[in-house]
Amino acid sequence: PQHVVLYPLVSKSLRNIAAGKDPLEGQRHCCSIAQMHEHYSLGYPDLDELQKNPQPLIFDIEVLKVEPPGSYQQDPWAMTDEEKLQAVPQIHKEGNELYRQGKVPEAAAKYYDAIACLKNLQMKEQPGSPDWIELDQKITPLLLNYCQCKLQCEEYYEVLDHCSSILNKYEDNVKAYFKRGKAHAAVWNVAEAQADFAKVLALDPSLRPVVSKELRSLEARLREKDAEDKIRFKGIFSQ
């Protein structure tokens, strides 16, 4: 056994990997010693204690299985920059196929992996530079696909956040307005939903039948909600 001063940071990265997160989450570009001083807490009490009081460690490593090269798909965090860029179209295709099969959460996970690959590359570019913009334009359709999955999974506030982030950069993105309008309608933000659907029509009048259907659905739900509220409040005030 020997002192392993940097092990708490390594352990945090391994725990992030096990949770499906970026192993470098929360870290910045600096040497390992500076990285240790950067964090008042690593998010795990046992690692915080080990960082304050380094101790000799013994590692037991168990080989679970051996997979030959090329027999498995690497996680995004393990890929080189070139591998990330090459993997995105295939991951996108796999997400689309899963979505067609009705496997929506699994499709969302694929889109998320593809977005993570591109975001990782984008972080290395100057915001607003041609390369940054090119990567962002590849991220946007993937993010819209991801939002479509989240709509179907009824995770509306995540849709609102992502679509708003898209529209902050691309004010004429019809799909982002439409998906955000559906999310607003689902959480009873009536005025916001109507405004987004109006923007959809202004940008693409050919979508009037689709927008009209969404507005009729919203109006029907509002009437149903009003009727339920009247019954509920009538019971309260009659007591």
TrEMBL record:
Protein known as: AH receptor-interacting protein
Start and stop residues of the TPR repeats: 174-207
SUPFAM superfamilies documented for this protein: TPR-like
Biological function: May play a positive role in AHR-mediated (aromatic hydrocarbon receptor) signaling, possibly by influencing its receptivity for ligand and/or its nuclear targeting.
Gene: Aip
GO molecular function: peptidyl-prolyl cis-trans isomerase activity
Compartment(s) of residence: Cytoplasm
GO CC field: cytoplasm
PROSITE patterns: TPR
Source organism: Lanius ludovicianus
Alphabetized InterPro entries for the sequence: AIP/AIPL1/TTC9, PPIase_AIP, PPIase_dom_sf, TPR-like_helical_dom_sf, TPR_rpt
Keywords, in A-Z order: Cytoplasm, Phosphoprotein, Repeat, TPR repeat
